[in-house]
Structure formats: structure tokens, C-alpha cells
Design goal:
By secondary structure, the protein is of the alpha/beta class. It has 27 helices and 24 strands. It is globular, with a radius of gyration of 28 Å.
């Protein structure tokens, strides 16, 4: 008997969704042209539709083009309607003026703690700004915003608890804040930085308020469980990753397991499947099962607070339920396309969201590639194991072109880690969710179920740390569009290989050879790019400012020795810079302070650092960073003013912090400040010192220098007197392109100009190299303009 042939994929709605996505991506950058784009798309759709009606048998291609043009027109119309309320002119003008405004906003997501703008932690959440008060004038709109409440706003007794209690999804707040405009294509229109404690105007409705205490109780219950297993359990069950440490988060990413803590299709499938099965066991018919499943899905969305991937997965689940209710099949691809089309039409700016793209691609991989891949693997593996391997491998293959844009590397152990975590993840999700729902009614049973869920959760965490700690956990890949193109070619080769009939031996061999060529080409290309980059820049540099985005990552070299000052917000960018500079061993690392934009890339230097000077560790997160350095074999030392040493031919000395730090609580104010000198060339690195600490540093005496690493990415919180005293020839500003803080600020640039200091910036210049030049001059090399 011959095996039944697989039904062909229905790509008509997928083509329309892809076209709408592309139009949304383009037109969101030019919203003023949205109305014209809408008109053109609808005219094309109408013209082609008229042509198809004239034909007795219109082709499916023509029908697909009509559908795609109509979808594009719908998305363009949505952009035209939303662009104005997203960027009200009155708010944009006030934001550009830097004034403090009073805003009414509706909270969308729960607050999450992160490194703050001025060194202290802050609460960050997404909201929709509904009104802004400018004197007697009220400007209304629907502007999506990223809201940040610095800790100094809620520093007085009890204010932090009050702020946390009012910042809940669905709540309407009033807050005094400064607004910072984003480019028109960004997913949020403004960053809103509060200058005062928010005031509750309206509590969340009952339909959403019930989830807040339940989430809080489950977080407390999981937090009482030991180690990584307890920290990870809320992420696996309800997508709440606030308890996940930086180290565990980095391990989950390095092992390709981070998707397990992003509530998506798997969780929605668990909810729908369980509720449908229970309803069927109780004798419910198809319609009743579908209704109960939808109700449970809505409740689950409220519990986890819907994000892009959750909403997309929920829409797919609803579409699948509708197909089941009507008895119509058609496969999962049209359902995915419908979900994409609905989401891109409702929020066209989501088309530029990497998380959304990865979610859609992963689901497409599961639909298109996983079934035939499992069939091919089933020829050499047991059927169950073949399915377990095929699912993460298919998702990884489809997502890889986008992943290499985010970090140009290939995870070596990602598929193996996903195979080991597959069944435990399902068990932890079901048991964790059950424990959460049992808390209000049977807290004792909920605690027992949570303890059972801890076992698979701890297994997943241990798997992640093991995979991330193995040698060669990732292979370098071509960066940028070249890497994307090679990865996309590799995906095409894999698809052809999987869909090639088993009997076509010659064709399969050729395709397998092509896959090998693509893999070797991407890996070898990465090495070639690194060698060319190393050959392109000068070799006699003293200071390198790595392009790590909105953060600090600097390298010193002298006599074949290397020092690193901070490591940026994530490891990939810092590791890429070290490779380009040919740095294989770090003799001295200086961690100025423990904000994420200075220590997030710690993995780039772990295991290859001799000595590390660290600032005061006054928080649990800071202590964990120090512990990770010490555990990697680094000689860890507390930095104090007066500490000094040599690095090759270079002399270094710590200038700050001193013992005279009264009233300074940590973070930016206590950033380790280093001065270095070599052959008469002197440089100073100010970390994130604010104006108060800079004045104290100046009061202790400061010498003129040739190079200054500008404090805090060029914020306005600077001492003009200090920069005038330093009188540096070059000021290095380590800052991210399109950052939401407005760095570097006009005030800082004016200070440097007044002090006679030439500003060089990583946001416009990429990696920067500064060193000596003949005649006592300085040489400045820029990656974008050598």
C-alpha cells in the first residue's frame, strides 16, 4: 500500500497576510502617506476584482492578488486612522520642549523592575496616554507609551508600596512626567518618565482586577520554592519572569529555551485542550465545548496580561475552534494567516516587533516543516522521539534568519536542550497553572501542586545552565543583511531537503551538500568579516569604545595586555567587539556599577578574565554579578580610591569612590572612576557619575586629561565645571542609536563645546578607537567613517 499524500498547503490567505505585513512595515515609517496607500491598494483590488468577474474561470493567482491588495488597503486605512491619535501635535511639541506634563493614562502591562536612568531601579510598564493637561488646555489621544517611574520618585516611606498598588493593568492613573518622543515607526509613541508618584483616578474593572492578587500570590508561593526552579516556575506557567535572575535569563537565551517563559501557543493549546477534554468528559456537545474553551482562554489572557505572542496564539485558537465547530478543516496555516491579518490590521506597528515576527515564524515552522520533518526523522528514530526532535528543530530553522539579525550566532545545543525540556515544560505549565488557580479555594493543595511543578521547572533551569556552560555553546555567524540572506538560503535548502521524496537519492544528496555549503559559508563568512574588521582598524589605539547600544563597553590595550571597562547590556555585542579587536584574554576588568546597561554582557568575559575591580555591591542583583565573576575564576577585588597598578606600559589609578560619599546611596553616584596614562597620554572614565558625584570628584582635585569617557551616555545630569577642569581634547560618548532618553542631550554637548572637547559618539560612529598620533596629536578612528 502507498502512503496517503499530504494535502497541499493553502497559501492564499498566507499571501494576503504577508502582503499586509509588508505594507504595514513600510507605511508605519511614512504614516502621512497612509491615506494615499490605502486609496491605491483599494483601486488595485477593485480593478483586479472587475477583471476576475469578466473571466468565466478566474485564476486562483488573480484572486489571491485581489485579496492581498484589499488586505493592504485595510492595513493602510488602519494606519491613517491611528497615526494622528498616536502622536498628538500638542503632546509632541511639549515633549520636544522638555517640559513636565500632567498625563492621564491607562495601564496595559504589569510593572517590571529594571535598571533606572540615573542608576537606581525603576518600575517600567506599557500604557496608553489618553489625555495631557497643558495649563487650561487638554490634549486627548490614544498614544501608546513606555512609562518609567524612577525609584527616587517613590523613595519616601511607603511611597513605593503605594505606587506598586496603583500601577495595575486596566487602572487609569494621573502622573506628572517628562515626555520623550519616538520615531513614527516605533511600537510606542513616547517614553514617559515620571517626576512624581502616580495618582489613581480609576481602579481596574472587576473583569480584570481579579487577576492581580492571584498573580501576586502565585509569585509569592513560587518564590518560597528553592533555587532556579522556583524563580522559573511563574514564567513557565503564566509568563511572569520578574523572579528570573540575570544569569538564568542569559542561560535560557543561550540554550534557546527562553521561548518557554513567553506565554504563547503552547500555553493556549494546553488551556483549550484541557477545558475541551473536561467538557467532553461531562457530555458537552461540540458547541458547548467551544464556548467553554473560549471563555477559559479569555480568562487565561487576563491572568497573563496579553502580549503580541499571546494574543496571536489566542486568535489562532479561536479560529481553530471555529473550524472545529463548523466541521471545516484546511490545516493550520490559514488560521495563522488570519491571526496575523487581524493583529496587523488592529495594530500595524506590531509589524516591526521582533517578538511578533519570531512568534509567527515559529508557529509557521511547526505547521509547515515539523510534520514532514518528523516523518523523515521517523525513518531513523522512534516515532515519539522523532516528533519531539522535529518540533524545536522546525521552529529553530524558521526563526534563524531573524535571530541572526538580533545576535549573529548559531546555538549549538539549542535543539538538544529543547528535546530535554519538552515534556518537563508541559508538565510544569499544567501543574503551575493548576496551582495558581487553586490558590483562592484550596491554598494547601495549591502549595503541594506547586512543589510538584518545581521538579520539572528545576530540570529546565539546570538544562539551560548546562547547555549554556558547555564549550562552544554558539558559533559566530555573518552579521547584518548578509547573515540574514545566508540564513534564509539555509532555510530554503532545509525545506527542499525535507520535502524531497525519499526515493530521490541524487537530489537529496545535492540538497544536503548545498546545506553544508550554506552552513560553512555562514560560519567562515563570520570569521572573514572578523578578520577584515581587525585588519581595517589601526593597531596603535589606546582606548576602544565598543558599539554596544545604550550602555558602556570599553577596552584598553597596552603592551599586548587588555582591560575592559563595563560590558554593555548584552553579551553578543560585547563579544563581537572583542573578537573584532582580537582580544582573547582580559587581564583587568572594571565593573563601574551594576546597572544592566553596564553588566548585562558579562558572559562575554566570563572565564577569560584575570582580575576584576568592582564597585560597591549594595543589592542582591549586584552581589550575584560579583559571585558569577568569582565563580568563573576571576580574582575579584573591591575598587577604592587610590588603588593603582599597571597594564603593559599603562599606569591606572582609581579616583572614585572615596570615603567622602556622604548622602550617596549607590548606583551611578558610586561609579568606579578610572584614570589611565601612557607615554604622556592621559584618559579618565567617568562611568555614570551624576552631577553631584562629579562635583565631589572635582573638589578632591582633578588633573587635565586628553580623553574623557563622558558620564552616563551624555545625559543632562553633568557638571560643566568638571569638564572644564578636565579640558579633554576628545570626549567619548557611549550611547545607543534612537535611544528613548534623548542622549546625548543638548546641555551635555554644549558643555563639551565650551570645554573645547570634541565629541565622538558610538550611535553615529559605531566602534571608536582613540590613540596617539605623530606630533602629540590624537588619532580617532570611527567604524562608520574610518
Amino acid at each position: 500500500m502507498t502512503a496517503a499524500r499530504r494535502a497541499p498547503l493553502d497559501l492564499r490567505l498566507a499571501a494576503a497576510a504577508a502582503g499586509a505585513w509588508a505594507v504595514a512595515w513600510i507605511v508605519t515609517a511614512f504614516p502621512d502617506a497612509a491615506a494615499a496607500a490605502c486609496l491605491v491598494a483599494f483601486l488595485v483590488a477593485a480593478t483586479l476584482a472587475a477583471m476576475s468577474f469578466r473571466r468565466r474561470r478566474p485564476t486562483s493567482i488573480l484572486a489571491t492578488v485581489v485579496l492581498t491588495a484589499a488586505a493592504a488597503g485595510l492595513v493602510a486605512a488602519s494606519i491613517a486612522g491611528q497615526a494622528g491619535p498616536r502622536h498628538p501635535a500638542g503632546i509632541t511639541a511639549a515633549a520636544d520642549g522638555g517640559r513636565v506634563l500632567t498625563a492621564d493614562l491607562v495601564v496595559v502591562t504589569p510593572p517590571r523592575g529594571e535598571a533606572g536612568r540615573f542608576g537606581a531601579p525603576q518600575e517600567t510598564f506599557r500604557a496608553v496616554v489618553r489625555a495631557v493637561h497643558r495649563g487650561e488646555t487638554i490634549v486627548t489621544g490614544r498614544a501608546p507609551a513606555l512609562v518609567k517611574i524612577p525609584v527616587d520618585v517613590t523613595a519616601e516611606a511607603g511611597a513605593g508600596q503605594r505606587a506598586a498598588s496603583v500601577v495595575r493593568p486596566g487602572a487609569r492613573l494621573r502622573v506628572s512626567a517628562r515626555f520623550f518622543s519616538h520615531p513614527r515607526e516605533h511600537s510606542t509613541a513616547f517614553t514617559v518618565v515620571a517626576t512624581d508618584e502616580p495618582v489613581l483616578l480609576r481602579a481596574p474593572g472587576r473583569w480584570i482586577a481579579w487577576a492581580d492578587p492571584l498573580r501576586a500570590r502565585f509569585l509569592a508561593l513560587a518564590g518560597a520554592l528553592p533555587g532556579d526552579g522556583g524563580d522559573l516556575l511563574p514564567g513557565l506557567s503564566i509568563g511572569d519572569t520578574r523572579a528570573v535572575s540575570e544569569g538564568l535569563d542569559a542561560a535560557m537565551k543561550a540554550s534557546s529555551l527562553s521561548h518557554l517563559t513567553a506565554v504563547s501557543g503552547a500555553n493556549c493549546a494546553v488551556v483549550v485542550t484541557l477545558v475541551s477534554a473536561l467538557a467532553a468528559a461531562c457530555g458537552a456537545d461540540r458547541r458547548a465545548r467551544a464556548g467553554l474553551a473560549v471563555g477559559a482562554l479569555v480568562g487565561f489572557l487576563v491572568l497573563v496580561t496579553p502580549g503580541a505572542s499571546v494574543t496571536r496564539a489566542a486568535l489562532m485558537a479561536v479560529a481553530a475552534l471555529a473550524a472545529d465547530l463548523t466541521g471545516r478543516g484546511g490545516g493550520g496555516l490559514p488560521f495563522l494567516a488570519l491571526a496575523v491579518l487581524v493583529m496587523v490590521t488592529a495594530d500595524p506597528w506590531i509589524s516591526r516587533d521582533y517578538g511578533f515576527a519570531l512568534s509567527v515564524l515559529a508557529t509557521a515552522g511547526l505547521i509547515v516543516l515539523a510534520p514532514p520533518l518528523a516523518g523523515r526523522l521517523g525513518r531513523i528514530l522512534p516515532a515519539r522521539l522523532a516528533r519531539v526532535v522535529a518540533v524545536p528543530l522546525a521552529a529553530q530553522v524558521f526563526c534563524q534568519p531573524v535571530l541572526v539579525l538580533l545576535a549573529p550566532q548559531l546555538p549549538v545545543y539549542g535543539v538538544a536542550a529543547n528535546v530535554l525540556a519538552d515534556l518537563p515544560a508541559t508538565i510544569a505549565t499544567i501543574l503551575g497553572l493548576a496551582s495558581c488557580l487553586l490558590l483562592p479555594v484550596l491554598p494547601g493543595l495549591a502549595q503541594g501542586v506547586a512543589q510538584l511543578a518545581w521538579l520539572p521547572s528545576a530540570w529546565i533551569a539546570a538544562t539551560a545552565r548546562l547547555a549554556a556552560g558547555l564549550p562552544a555553546a554558539s558559533l559566530p555567524w555573518l552579521p547584518g543583511l548578509a547573515g540574514l540572506g545566508v540564513a534564509a538560503a539555509g532555510v530554503a535548502v532545509v525545506i527542499v531537503l525535507v520535502f524531497t521524496p525519499p526515493g530521490s537519492g541524487t537530489r537529496a544528496s545535492l540538497v544536503a551538500m548545498a546545506a553544508g555549503v550554506v552552513l560553512v559559508g555562514g560560519y567562515a563568512g563570520a570569521g572573514t568579516v572578523t578578520m577584515l574588521a581587525a585588519a581595517a582598524h589601526p593597531r596603535d589605539w589606546l582606548v576602544a569604545a565598543c558599539d554596544v547600544g545604550q550602555g558602556d563597553g570599553l577596552v584598553l590595550q597596552s603592551g599586548g595586555r587588555h582591560a575592559v571597562i563595563d560590558v554593555g547590556p548584552e553579551p553578543a555585542a560585547m563579544a563581537r567587539c572583542l573578537r573584532a579587536l582580537g582580544v582573547r584574554h582580559v587581564d583587568l576588568a572594571v565593573i563601574t556599577h551594576f546597572d544592566l546597561d553596564h553588566v548585562g554582557g558579562l558572559d562575554a568575559i566570563l572565564g577569560k578574565t584575570g582580575v576584576a575591580l568592582v564597585g560597591p555591591a549594595r543589592s542582591e542583583a549586584a552581589r550575584k554579578v560579583s559571585e558569577r565573576l568569582a565563580a568563573s575564576g576571576t580574582d575579584l577585588r573591591q575598587a577604592r580610591a587610590g588603588d593603582h597598578g599597571t597594564l603593559g606600559d599603562l599606569d591606572w589609578k582609581v579616583l572614585w569612590p572615596t570615603t567622602e560619599t556622604a548622602g550617596m546611596t549607590g548606583g551611578n553616584e558610586l561609579s568606579v572612576t578610572l584614570q589611565v596614562s601612557q607615554a604622556g597620554l592621559r584618559a579618565v572614565f567617568l562611568g555614570d557619575l551624576d552631577e553631584k558625584a562629579q562635583q565631589a570628584l572635582l573638589a578632591g582635585g582633578i588633573e587635565p586629561v586628553d580623553i574623557v569617557k563622558v558620564a552616563h551616555h551624555g545625559s543632562a545630569d553633568q557638571s560643566s565645571a568638571l569638564y572644564e577642569a578636565l579640558h579633554a581634547r576628545v570626549g567619548i560618548i557611549s550611547v545607543g542609536a534612537d535611544n528613548t532618553y534623548g542622549h546625548p542631550t543638548p546641555r551635555l554637548l554644549g558643555i563639551l563645546q565650551k570645554a573645547g572637547t570634541a565629541a565622538v559618539r558610538t550611535d553615529t560612529g559605531g566602534m571608536l578607537l582613540v590613540g596617539p598620533a605623530p606630533g602629540g596629536r590624537l588619532s580617532v578612528w570611527s567604524e562608520t567613517a574610518p
